[in-house]
Every structure is written in C-alpha cells, then in structure tokens.
Amino acid sequence: MADHGGGGGGCCPPMDLFRSEPMHLVQIIIPIESAHLTASYLGDIGLIQFKDLNAEKSPFQRTYAGQIKRCGEMARKLRYFKDQMSKAGLTPPVKTEAKCDISLDDLEVKLGDLEAELIEINANSEKLQRGYNELVEYKLVLQKAGEFFKAAHTSAVAQHREAVSEQAPEESLETPLLTDQDSKTDQGKQVKLGFLAGLVPKAKAVAFERILFRATRGNVFLKQAALEEAVVDPSLGEKVEKNVFLVFFSGERAKSKILKICEAFGANRYPFAEDLSKQEQSITEVSGRLSELKTTIDAGLLHRGNLLQTIGEQYEQWNLLVRREKAIYHTLNMLSIDVTKKCLVAEGWSPIYATEEIQDALERAAIDSNSQVGAIFQVLHTKELPPTFFRTNKFTDSFQTIVDAYGVAKYQEANPGVYTVVTFPFLFAVMFGDWGHGICLLLATLFLIFKEKKYSTQKLGDIMEMTFGGRYVILLMSLFSIYTGLIYNEFFSVPFELFSPSAYACRDAACSEATTIGLIKVRDTYPFGVDPAWHGSRSELPFLNSLKMKMSILIGVVQMNLGIIMSFFNALYFRNPVNIWFQFIPQMIFLNGLFGYLSVLIIVKWCTGSKADLYHVMIYMFLSPTDELGENQLFANQKTVQLVLLLLSLIAVPWMLLPKPFILKAQHNRTHQGQSYTPLEGEDESLQVETPHDSHDHEEFEFSEVFVHQLIHTIEFVLGAVSNTASYLRLWALSLAHSELSTVFYEKVLLLAWGYNNIIILIVGIIVFIFATVGVLLVMETLSAFLHALRLHWVEFQNKFYEGDGYKFHPFSFASLGDEDE
Amino acid sequence: MYGFEAMTFNIHGGYLEAIVRGHRSGLLTAADYNNLCQCETLDDIKMHLTATEYGPYLQNEPSPLHTTTIVEKCTLKLVDEYKHMLCQATEPLSTFLEYITYGHMIDNVVLIVTGTLHERDVQELLEKCHPLGMFDSIATLAVAQNMRELYRLVLVDTPLAPYFSECITSEDLDDMNIEIMRNTLYKAYLEDFYQFCQKLGGATAEIMSDLLAFEADRRAVNITINSIGTELTRDDRRKLYSSFGLLYPYGHEELAICEDIDQVRAVMEKYPPYQPIFSKLSYGESQMLDKAFYEEEVKRLCLSFEQQFHYAVFFAYMRLKEQEIRNLMWISECVAQNQKSRVHDSVVFIF
C-alpha cells in the first residue's frame, strides 16, 4: 500500500514536510572483521535505525557484552577523574574539535595507569593529611588543656594563698592542726590519679559525658572546652565541631573503661604531659612538624594538580571516544550473528534517499578495514509500518514538536505540521492582538535568536529551555500579533491614527467623546484595521464583539474545511476511494451546508451593510425552513437556497453513516473468497501465501464493530461540527479578555497615577504597570493564548484527518549521543 | 474510625504512601531474577543491576567487585529510602517507621555483645551492624560486662530500654544468656509493636496484626527447634514465646514440650494456615523450613499492598526489600563461589 504511495502523491508538488520520508527496511550483512568500523561510519551518518534482533537475549548474553563492560569500566574511571577534577576545582575545557586517534585498547591501559597513579597520590596525600590533621588536633589539645592546667594552677595557688592568708591572722584553736597532713595525703592520692586528654565531636559531647559518668559511677572529673573553629577530623577527612576534654580518673579498671568509651565515641586521645615546661616543649615540636608536613602536602597537591591538568586536557576527547565505542557495541549487540560466526546480519529502517550514502559508508568501511568481502546491502519487503521521519530544520522543528506532542504521524500521513507553521502563530495572534505587546515579545525572542549560538551549547533551566526551544514559534507569534494588533489598532490598548486620521469627526463642539451619535463620517473609511474613533466610545464593545465573533467563525470554518480537505488528500494518497465518496464528500456538504453558509452570510452582510439578524436566519433555517424571511433576507432566492442546503445536510448524515460499513464488508468478502484460490497459482506461492496470511492476522472482520465505529464517527462529526465551530469562539473571548485587561492596566494604573501629579505616585504607578504588563499580559496571557491555540490545532483541526499513531524514527547517530547521557 | 480513615489518610500519609508504592514497583521482578541467576560473574550482576533502580549506587564501583560491596550498596539504597521517608513522616507514622528498625537494633546489640565476648575488634563489629539499627552510643556496648551494666550504661537511652525490664540479671554474659536476651527482647518488642498497631486501629491494625502474628509464630517455631537438645527448660522456653499470634496460647503449651522436629510439625499442622508450609517438607527435615516461611511471609507482605490507606505497606516494603537484598546476597555468593546449581535453594521470588 505504502509502496505505491510515491505515485499517488504526484498530485501536489513535492513538499518534504507534508509526507514523512519514504523509508525501507534494509538488511546489511557485514563481515565480522569490518563490523566495528561499519557501525562507526553508519553512526557518523546517522540515518539508519537498527532493529533489535536479539530482543530475547539478556544484556550480558550478547556477543559484545564484554566490550560494553570494558567501556562501562572506562566510563567509570572517567567519572572518577571528573569527580577528582571538580574536587580540585578544575573544569575540563569544552573543545572537542581535535579528534583523538588513540585506540580503545591503548586508552584502556592509559586510563588504568592514570587511575592507579591518581589513587596512589591520593592515598599518600591522605596519609599525610591525616598526620597533619592529627598534629593540628594535638596542638589544639595542648593549648586548651594547657590552659586548664594553668587556670587550675593559679586558682589552686590563689586558694592556697587565701587559705594561708585567712589562717594567718586568726590562728585560733579551731584551726585544724591536720591541714598539712591532709594536703599531703591529697597529693599522695593525686599521684594515683590518671588523666586523659583528647577531642570529642561536639554533637556527641553530652552523651560522652553521661556515659563516662555512668560507667565509672561518677568517679571521674571531666573538663571540656569548645573549640572556636571546626577542625578536620583525621579519620573522616571532614570538618567537625569538636570539644577538647580532659578526664581525671583513678584506678586501672576505670582507665580501661574510659579508653573503650573514648574509642566508641570516636574521641581521639593525645599524650599530654603534666609538666608545664614539657607542654611548651611539645607545642614547639608539634608546630615544627606541622610546617614540615605542610610543605610536603603542598608538593603532593601540586603534583596531583599537574596530573589532573593533563587528564583534563584530554578528558572530553576520551569521554567522547568511550561513549562512541559504547554506542557502537550496543548497536553491534542488536545484530544477529550468523551461524558461521563470520558475519553479522543487521536489519533496520532507513530513508530511501540515504541509500547511496549508506552504501558509500559500507564501501569505505570495507576498504578501511582491509576486509576481503564488502558488506551486502539489500532491501527487504515487509508489511510492517515504517517509522515516521520528517527532515526538519531548526525553524520547522519546534512546530513539528507541537504536532508530535499530540501524536506522531502515521507513516506518510498528511502532516499538519506544514500548516501549523502559519496557522498556529496566526491563531495565537488573533487572541493576542496588541502591537505593543507584540513588539515586547519580538524583542525578547530576537534576543534569544541572536544568542542562539551561545545558548544552544549550554544547559539552561527548565522554563528557559522551553522558551529557547520554541524561539522561532515565538518569533512568528510576535510578528503575527503585531499584525493583528495593527488591525485591532491597539498599542498597550491605546489606539493610534497610524494610517490616516480617523474617518469620523464631531458634528459640532457639543458632542461628547463617549458617544458615537454625534459623529459623522468626514473622510474615507480608515484604510487598515479598526478606526481609532471607536476606542472609548459607548458602542466600542458591541462593535468589536460582533467583528471578532464573526471573524472567529470565519477562521474556524476555513480551518476545519482545510482539515477535511486534508482527509481527502490522505484518502487519495492511500488509494481509498471509499473514504472520499462516503466520508469526505458528505462531510464537506454537511459542514459547508450549515456553517459554510453562515460564513457566506457573514461576508454578504459585511459587503452589503445589511441589518439582517444572522441568529434569526440560522435558527429559523432549522425551525421553520419554509417561513418567509422578511427583513432578514440578504439576497434573492435565499429561502430556496436554504431549503436545498438543509436537505443536503440532512442527506449527508446517513450518507456518512450507512454505505461505508457495507462496502467494507463486501470488500472483505471478496478478498476472502479470492484467498482460497491463491495457493493454486503456482510459482509465486511463497509470496502469495505470505500476504493473505498477514492480512488475515490483522483484519478479523467484525461487521458490528465496524458499524458501531462508523456510528460513533458520524455522531462525533455531526455534533463536532456544531461544537467545534462554537469552540473557535474562544478566539473572540481571549482577544476580548486580553484587550480589556490591558485597558484596565492602562487606565486604572498608569492614567490614575498620572492624574495625581505626584512624581512618587507616578513612579510607583509605572512600576506596577510594567510588572502587570510583563507578568500578566506578556507571560500569563501568552501562555493561555498558546494553550488555546494548541487546543484548536489538536482537537478542532487535527481530528478531521489526523491519525497520529505512528512511531518516530530514531536513527543510530553519534550526534545525538551527547544529550542522551547527561 | 474504621472505614473513615480513607477520608483523612491522604492529608499526612498520602505522599509517603505514594512514595512507598513507587519504591515497591522498583523491586526486582521475576524476569530480573531470571537474568541474575544466569550471570557468570559478579560483573555481570553489576551490569544487570545498573539497569535497575540500583544503578546509581553501583555504577561507580571499581571492577573487581565483592559480594559485600554489592550488599552494602543495596542496603545503602534501602537506608536512604528509609531515611527519606522518616524525614517526611509525621506522627504516628514516624513512630511506626521507627518501630520497624527496633528489630535491627536488637540484632545489632546482640552482635556487638557477642563480638566483644569473643574479643573481636569493635570497629570490625560496627561495620557488620545493620545500618538501620544503629544508635549513637552503640559502640559503648563493648564496655559492659553483664546485663545490668549493659542496660544501665547504654540501653537506657535507646528505645529498647523498656524491653529490658524482663531480662536484667547480674549474671555474666555468655552465649546462652545472650541468645535468651535476644529472644526476650524480641518478644517484648513484638508485643509492644503489636500493641502500638492495635492502638492505631483501622486497616493498619488489621493487616499489621496478621503480619506480626505470623512473625511471632515463626519465631516461636524457630525458638522451639533451636532449643531442642539444649539445657533450656520447658518453662523458660515457654517464656520466650510472644503472647499473641495464632499459636497463642494453646499452641505454645504444646510447642513448649516438643522434643523433636516431628513433634513440632504435628503441632503446627493443626493450624490450617501453616499446613501448606509443613506439607512441603519431608519428615525430619528443617533446612528448608526457613525458605518456606520466607515464601509465606513474602506472599503476605505482597498482599498488604492490595489495600490502601494503611501503614502496613511501609513495613511490608522494608521487609520485601530486605528479602530482596538477601536474595541478591545469595545469588552473588553462589556466582562468586561457582555454586550456580544452588542458586535456587534460597532465593525467594517476590511477586
């Protein structure tokens, strides 16, 4: 069916975007020695989508699982390097022009060496760092604990002195005689008192103290002081807030318990001399060693930095190479391997125009890999539906995305994307008609377009990404809204006499500005768009409403007709006369008999300036078609025309509903009868048997189902004709809302603020006006108009012809590798 | 409020229930297990797992893998998920979630105490602890010499403290004591959890009581089988059974006097839900019992996802995930030791 399509489409000039590219299923038999190079060249072209021929095999049972594992391992090493580089504050340069000529095996060895070296350097510097951090902690402990001791010493001395001074004046009988002895025994006990000094994380300090207390039944003395700055914990390598502690205890058992507790809490203990002079000595010692270590560490860091620098220079190249290799092996894994293990068989879809390119790539691969046999390229015939592939450019791409978001076109189906390029921005602009706002939008999108080169390479935020992706849509949207804005004559809701002075003027000085009654026409009709005199007049709204409403209906009927005509082209293309005679024609008659007629009436009314009531005409066309029209008559013989149209529309409904299912049934019966004879026809047996077998699988003909389907379709169309036309009135509604909103902001904010004659109020007013304009009118209104335009395309336009049940063409291409992985 | 919880459940629990159901759909499926069982090396397993939810946790591991690394990373994922849920939870769900970890806490306490008894390095023991059952002062457990000290020093700060009331003795710790302590603690924990779920009411109570009763009965059977032939008296054994579940109280009386596995079997076959479990085993066999129980448990856990608006899904998810990690550990061990014929011995398929 699709194969004959090329001839059938001859009716219209070739249009790349109108029908998706003709595709064919190709089979390539590649000798195994040139397989890798072939896949690589095909990936460079990026025009073939491979089918997975090993779908039932799990990933590690496939032929090239080992290579993929190796690539994964290398990718891991590269990630490790990247991690290390970002830790060291290096960013790999993003230039990828230089193609690296290193082979995968060499790269693997090199990466392995580099990783080992880096790990060793890291381990060394970690060891040094650990020693350094320990020393830092030790120094802190020495300082802090030294302070304890000093403080204790001075207070003890002071107490002693106090005691002495207290005792001295009043040597009475009460003074204990044994003081000296007591202090001596105290000192004797103190000898047995042990103490430990160290650091404990601040978060655990309280629990630490509690456990110490419990474990020793309160027989400890714990002194803690918080460090002002967080220190780097030697074992964790992270900054932790810590407390210096000093524990005094007595007895060996207590000591072992405390040691265990310290260990459990990750409290680092440090040797601490009681003697003040020794403390001083160790502090100087520690400081000396610290500075020594520091230089060593710095040297190590420098070395590491250099290593990372060299890695960083080639990082991007390596990364690209590894990714390419991985993609190649993934592709090769999808090919089925021949029994003889000498060649791989690939199947895939490719556009017909690319055949030569592919064959060329195959030849080059065969030559470059010194293979004795070239790859064999042949086209397979299949009943499978090929993928849909449109050759878009950066301009049409975003419009095609709008269509694809609804559903990817069936293979070679008429593509609404072609029309969307113009109709979408146009419908948007009908709702967003204001040339002031249009210019704002235009400036914003021009900014994006000029920055295109810069932005397309970098990562943008979610919303920004979306706006940037649709920059050409927005460009057209803004141009069209400048156009409709000129027609509506609104610039931030203010009318201008751009093309000529207003055609109307006051008859005398007495006529007020809020009325049209006193106005007379003094000049020719305003040449383009709405006459500015309408603005602010009492009849402004009725006039604009009537204009926009009628315009919406006209636009709607035209677009829906276009949709139905597209279904005609589809039927013609796919050779489906039933759809033309029993779907397209009655649909055209029905829609145009009712709403096409309404459109004609609207135009006639505009041209003749008649005062006929179109509601009345339309309603009584159904209610009492034979009545006289009276003053609502727009042209001669209108009643007869109406009667004919009504009758035609009524006939069109059963015409749509009844014949098609019966014809389909008859067709089916005919082919079914024919089938029983085909096997007898001799030579073409294999071909013949296959075709009926296939179709038999797909088309289990169920008459009731087809009939119900047709019934639903008919009802949908008949009701849809009414509701879809009504749906186009949203064009009017949104455009009204937009102009009213901007009027409100202009009059109630800007003019109000102006009226106060106060500079501050004016500034505030301007700021509020700008924010309201940008936030509400430019952002929210744009979004809502966008959504409504989207809906009009997806529902009202596309449901007339668009199936949208195809699937997209995803070629194996290196160009698309980058975005997938990140 | 039974029947009306559906109206208000989503205010606090809706988000987390959605999260947990999402996590659940990330569990490995039978197809995944099939593929995993066909793996030849640990690297194959890694390659397969990187295509699943475990991907981000395993992809940066250097190539000579060990079973422990795989299990560790998979557990890390479970812990991360648990912590995320706990952070988001409000009362009473947060308490419920905390209850789930107490079992691990008990295991960890027992592990450390047994370890120090055999003079193992504390740091080494800590690495073996389940990360869900960690608490601040867990390393201090090594200091304690007997139960009283254990309680007074460390456990009084933990949620396990109330469960300890029954087993404070001044006896020195030995293997037997520790095992009894574990079971007493577990009994108290299960009973407490059961009470808590009853208090929550609604579907949570209904489903959780079923799940916990199964757990209690399984423990009762295991205690009985493990204590056959030891010096544990019948009364002591009787004391270790939780005071709820299908077997309570008459089954417990009978279990308490069992002397060999076939007697246990005779007792259990009187209870229809356990009949199929035991009918799968041949007489005198107890090795496959664990697997049979696990299978039954998994079935019940999966069923709890059939109802909405209750907390048991969280319990069920954590349990299922643990089972999955056990499966992965078994498969990787089998692959690493070239015992692929035994892969199916202990893997319990989920779903």
From TrEMBL, chain A:
GO cellular component: vacuolar proton-transporting V-type ATPase, V0 domain
Cell compartments where the protein resides: Membrane
GO molecular function list: ATPase binding; proton-transporting ATPase activity, rotational mechanism
GO terms of biological process kind: vacuolar acidification
Major subcellular site: membrane
Disordered: annotated segments: 160-183
Residue ranges the record marks as coiled coil: 104-131
TM segment ranges: 426-450, 471-488, 551-572, 584-604, 640-658, 759-780
UniProt keyword annotations, A-Z: Coiled coil, Hydrogen ion transport, Ion transport, Membrane, Transmembrane, Transmembrane helix, Transport
Bilayer disposition of the protein: Multi-pass membrane protein
InterPro entries in the record: V-ATPase_116kDa_su, V-type_ATPase_116kDa_su_euka
Keyword Transmembrane helix found: yes
Protein task: Essential component of the vacuolar proton pump (V-ATPase), a multimeric enzyme that catalyzes the translocation of protons across the membranes. Required for assembly and activity of the V-ATPase.
Family per similarity comment: Belongs to the V-ATPase 116 kDa subunit family.
Protein name per its UniProtKB record: V-type proton ATPase subunit a
Automatic annotation (TrEMBL), chain B:
Membrane topology reported for the UniProt record: Peripheral membrane protein
Entry keyword set: Hydrogen ion transport, Ion transport, Transport
SUPFAM superfamilies the record matches: V-type ATP synthase subunit C (SSF103486)
Single GO molecular function: proton-transporting ATPase activity, rotational mechanism
Xref: Pfam families: vATP-synt_AC39
Location in the cell: Vacuole membrane
InterPro entries, per the entry: ATPase_csu/dsu_sf (IPR036079), ATPase_V0-cplx_csu/dsu (IPR002843), ATPase_V0-cplx_dsu (IPR016727), V-type_ATPase_csu/dsu (IPR035067), V-type_ATPase_csu/dsu_dom_3 (IPR044911)
Transmembrane residue ranges: none
UniProt main location, coarse: membrane
Gene Ontology terms: cellular component: proton-transporting V-type ATPase, V0 domain; vacuolar membrane
PANTHER family named among the record's database cross-references: VACUOLAR ATP SYNTHASE SUBUNIT AC39 (PTHR11028)
Function according to Swiss-Prot or TrEMBL: Subunit of the integral membrane V0 complex of vacuolar ATPase. Vacuolar ATPase is responsible for acidifying a variety of intracellular compartments in eukaryotic cells, thus providing most of the energy required for transport processes in the vacuolar system. Subunit of the V0 complex of vacuolar(H+)-ATPase (V-ATPase), a multisubunit enzyme composed of a peripheral complex (V1) that hydrolyzes ATP and a membrane integral complex (V0) that translocates protons. V-ATPase is responsible for acidifying and maintaining the pH of intracellular compartments and in some cell types, is targeted to the plasma membrane, where it is responsible for acidifying the extracellular environment.
Subunit structure: V-ATPase is a heteromultimeric enzyme made up of two complexes: the ATP-hydrolytic V1 complex and the proton translocation V0 complex. V-ATPase is a heteromultimeric enzyme composed of a peripheral catalytic V1 complex (components A to H) attached to an integral membrane V0 proton pore complex (components: a, c, c'', d and e).
Family: Belongs to the V-ATPase V0D/AC39 subunit family.
Protein name: V-type proton ATPase subunit
High-level lineage: Eukaryota, Viridiplantae, Streptophyta, Embryophyta, Tracheophyta
